[in-house]
Structure formats: structure tokens, C-alpha cells
Write a structure and sequence with these properties.
By secondary structure, the chain is α+β, with helices and mostly antiparallel strands. It is built from eleven helices and 14 strands. It has helices at about 10-15, 20-30, 35-40, 55-75, 90-105, 120-130, 135-140, 185-215, 220-225, 295-300, 360-370; strands at about 80, 110, 150-155, 170-175, 230-240, 250-255, 260-265, 270-275, 280, 290-295, 310-315, 320-325, 340, 355-360. A hairpin with a 2-residue loop joins β8 and β9 (about 280). The longest helix is centred in the middle third of the chain and has 28 residues, at about 185-215. The chain is globular.
Length: about 375
């Protein structure tokens, strides 16, 4: 591993050769076990070619041209969940209708008064920054490209598959149904992460109930399907980037799970959602959490709910952190269980649009494909 606290020339020299060998550069970057943060710590002034996206500059140009019109024409819905506790059926139905409209038309919405304490959310983001901003040596033992592990730190899960690497590092932790052992979780994150996980599970179950009702199903229908039984936290870190116009924090993609609940830094707006062929900013709202539909929920809802493409821009001046909770079922414990479109949603004119698949099959296809901007659902279409 490169010594980032000593001579930084080692890590920089790996990427400055005129004889560009992409695979060699990918391996050199991965072998540092320092991630993108390691490049920043080394004082890099130009991003390595492995991070240069052929579409980033063009997308950035289009975004600037359309930013004014799109920001006025559309914004992500914000839904207040506080009134659910009052036991008012009329108020609950209004909230269900708002959730369903958001899931059907936008695929994204933000929630406020959701029950997760704001101080816990702030502490969670603080600890993610602390973890990623440690010296490279303190994180190196966790840097393992093995996605069967329940606690791991890596830069770009699709590093060797993607056309361009993303300007992002990630700590991953599986927390249900069989969680990582406490000693496997970095001590900086451990206590806060466990408390946050408990709170986010409650919110996830609440949202699944609202969606079940909105689909005309029993309130516990999606819970009983075990859509919310397994989840993992992905603690993303996007270091400041010297050339943000040449790369992205996360490439255009749709999520591979049933449902995602995202906590993002509230001082930097880099998340964008693709709506009507325009990139729309998702401005941070302090105390809010972002909810979005994943591919598996689109599949079992037979395309009624939309898993929408989104991306994260690179940022010039400040690092950014986010915590994504992926509700991904129980595929590790039940690899042969099959999921397909819910039969109760069929009608004479609305027949199944997807074949049944196991979550394990879907996830393997998604990971092998990488974040290439193409829907992983295509393979499962009838």
C-alpha cells in the first residue's frame, strides 16, 4: 500500500505515465487501499484517467442550460408523516395518496416528521465523515473487494466493470436479518450505526405499510413478503474533486433493492433525479430523509411504481457524505425464494410484465453489469 503520510509521490506517480494502461491503473488504484480520499490526501491536482467520464462534461453542459427551467417546473415532493400518529383515517389516506403519487410519477420523495431523531441523523453523518477522513492505514484492513462480507470498505463496487470510476468511497454494513458482528463494525461508527439502524427499520416498515395500502393490499402485505426483513447501510463519501466537470460522484443508475431511505449532508446539493429527460436537483432539507423506489419494488408492482434513475455530481470545494439504507429482502438467507409481479395487482388488461426471479439472481446480474446507465430490469422483462 502507498504510504500517504510519507512520500506522496508514490501514489501520484502511478497515474502520470504517458503509456495509458487502464487495467494497470485500476489495479494500482485498488492496491493502495486508500480509495479516492487517498488521492485527495496525496495532493492530486488532476484526476486520474480512470475517473474521466466521456459523458460528464456533456451532461454538465446540458444541466447548466436547463437548470433554471427544470428547477421551476419540478421539485421532489416533501411528505409530512407526523399526522399518521393521530389515528385519523382521513389524514392517513391523504398521506397514502401522496406516497403513491410520488412513487408512481417520480419514484422519489422526501419525508419529514418521520420519527428518526435529528440529532441522531446529524451524528450519523458526522461519524461517516470521521471514518472516511481517517488516515488510510486506519481503514486499510477493511478494504476488501468481497461482497459476501457483512462489513467492508471499498471504492467503487464496479471498479473493474464500469466505463469510468466514480469519485466515491463506501463503507458497507449488512444489518439484517443477520447483522455484522459488533466487533466487525469500525468503532467510530459502531454505536451510532446500530442506533440509527433501529430507527431506520421502523421508518422502513412504516413506508412499506403506506405503499401496501396504496396498492390496495393488506397493510402488512409487503412486510409479509419480507421486503423489509433484510437491509444494509452504505456510508458513501464523496471527497472534494479538483476537476468535478470531468467525473461524477455516482453514475446514472436505478437502485437494485425494494426501497432506499437516504440521509444526505444538508450543506451540499449534488444528488439529481432524472425526470422527463431532465436532471433535477434534490435540495437537502435539514431533518428530512429521501425515499426512493428500487428495481425490485418496480418488478413486484408490475411497473406501477417507478424505480427512477439518479446520479451524484462531483463537488469542487467540500467533501460530501450520505447514508443509504437499502431494503433488499432476505436473499442471503433464502437464495431460492422467487419474487414476481404481485398477482392481486393483475387485471384483464394488466398482465405480468416480468418473469419471476430470485433476489440473488437479480443482484448478481446488477453487480456484474455495474452502473452503466442501463436498466437491470430489462433482462427480466416478459
Amino acid at each position: 500500500m502507498a504510504d500517504l503520510n510519507g512520500d506522496n509521490l508514490d501514489i501520484l506517480s502511478r497515474f502520470e505515465s504517458n503509456n495509458y494502461d487502464r487495467m494497470k491503473e485500476l489495479k494500482a488504484f485498488d492496491e493502495t487501499k486508500a480509495g479516492v480520499r487517498g488521492l485527495v490526501d496525496a495532493g492530486i491536482k488532476e484526476i486520474p484517467r480512470i475517473f474521466i467520464s466521456t459523458t460528464a462534461a456533456d451532461d454538465d453542459m446540458k444541466k447548466k442550460k436547463k437548470a433554471g427551467s427544470s428547477s421551476k417546473e419540478f421539485s421532489i415532493p416533501v411528505i409530512d408523516l407526523g399526522d399518521i400518529k393521530k389515528g385519523d383515517d382521513h389524514q392517513r389516506k391523504m398521506i397514502v395518496d401522496q406516497v403513491m403519487s410520488s412513487c408512481e410519477n417520480f419514484g422519489f420523495f422526501q419525508v419529514v416528521n418521520h420519527g428518526v431523531p435529528e440529532n441522531l441523523m446529524d451524528e450519523m453523518l458526522k461519524k461517516v465523515h470521521m471514518f472516511h477522513e481517517q488516515p488510510a492505514e486506519a481503514k486499510a484492513s477493511l478494504y476488501i473487494r468481497n461482497f459476501a462480507l457483512k462489513s467492508t470498505y471499498v471504492s467503487n463496487f464496479d471498479l473493474f466493470q464500469a466505463a469510468a470510476a466514480n469519485w466515491r468511497d463506501t463503507y458497507y454494513c449488512s444489518l439484517a436479518p443477520t447483522p455484522a458482528k459488533p466487533e466487525e463494525i469500525p468503532i467510530i461508527l459502531r454505536d451510532t450505526m446500530m442506533e440509527y439502524s433501529d430507527q431506520i427499520e421502523k421508518l422502513g416498515l412504516k413506508v412499506f405499510e403506506l405503499i401496501s395500502e396504496g396498492l390496495g393490499l393488506r397493510r402488512n402485505y409487503l412486510k409479509d413478503m419480507e421486503c423489509a426483513k433484510g437491509w444494509a447501510l452504505l456510508c458513501h463519501y464523496y471527497p472534494e474533486c479538483p476537476q468535478p466537470e470531468l467525473t461524477v460522484g455516482t453514475s446514472k443508475h436505478a437502485d437494485s433493492d425494494f426501497l432506499t431511505i437516504l440521509l444526505q449532508d444538508d450543506h451540499i446539493s449534488c444528488l439529481q433525479v432524472l425526470h422527463k429527460n431532465q436532471w433535477v436537483d434534490v435540495p437537502p432539507v435539514h431533518g428530512a430523509l429521501i425515499v426512493n423506489v428500487g428495481d425490485l419494488l418496480q418488478l413486484i408492482s408490475n411497473d406501477r411504481l417507478k424505480s427512477v434513475e439518479h446520479r451524484v455530481l462531483a463537488n469542487l470545494k467540500n467533501p460530501r457524505a450520505s447514508v443509504a439504507c437499502f431494503f433488499n429482502g432476505t436473499h442471503l438467507e433464502q437464495p431460492t425464494r422467487k419474487y414476481g409481479p404481485i398477482k392481486e395487482l393483475f387485471s384483464e388488461t394488466d398482465r405480468p410484465k416480468y418473469r419471476e426471479t430470485t433476489i440473488d439472481e437479480y443482484i448478481k446480474h446488477y453487480n456484474a453489469k455495474g452502473l452503466d446507465g442501463k436498466s437491470a430490469l430489462t433482462l427480466f422483462k416478459l
